[in-house]
Amino acid sequence: MPRTKLDIFMGTTAAPVHQSMGEITRVLVKAGATSISTVYGGRGEITGMNFVIPMGKTAYPYVLPVRVEALYQKINGIRVRRASDHEEEDRKRAERIAWRQLLRWVEAQMALVDTGMVEVKEVFLPYCVDRNGKSFFQIFIENEKKMLGAGTGGGI
Question: Which helix (H) or strand (E) holds 148?
């Protein structure tokens, strides 16, 4: 039986992309961000946010990507009718959901920081970028075997 309900976290949001971006900006500024900018893709779509948070004498640059395509594919795959009839609607919905999910994720990370459970650098580490614009996550994926080795399975 085909699914008719969109079972995605924040799947019913009506918040426009720019509203979520504004709320993310406020959370990042509260966390100490001194610079925040918008990243655009080849078609003029918003694909993420760059920000800098100084800690001590070092300013750490980060990029938060918003990968809408996966959400679009999920929404489109749930359709009972022809997906092509709803492409624009589904893309806009995917964008709204992706940005709202990112907002909630950033808020959750800052809640952990506020309670002292983690540090800002710790939660945003995968998104920290080097001078060439590569994120730690991208560098890790490229060097995964060299960085981790066999491992011992030990805990924290």
Answer: helix 144-148
pLDDT tens digit sequence for 47-73: 999 999 998 899 999 999 999 999 998
**pTM of the prediction?**
0.84
DSSP state of 2: -
3-state secondary structure 67-129: CHHHHHHHHHHHCCCCHHHHHHHHHHHHHHHHHHHHHHHHHHHHHHHHCCCCCHHHHHHHHEE
128: Cβ contacts below 8 Å, ≥ 6 apart: 60, 61, 62, 121, 135, 136
Position 81 pLDDT exceeds 80: no
pLDDT of residue 2: 41
Phi, psi of 104, deg, nearest 5: -65, -35
In this predicted structure, the answer to whether residue 150 has a pLDDT above a threshold of 70 is no
| Cross-sheet strand order for the sheet of 46-55 | 35-40, 46-55, 58-65
Beta bridge partners of residue 129, listed in sequence order: 135
Contact 140, 149 (CB under 8 A): no
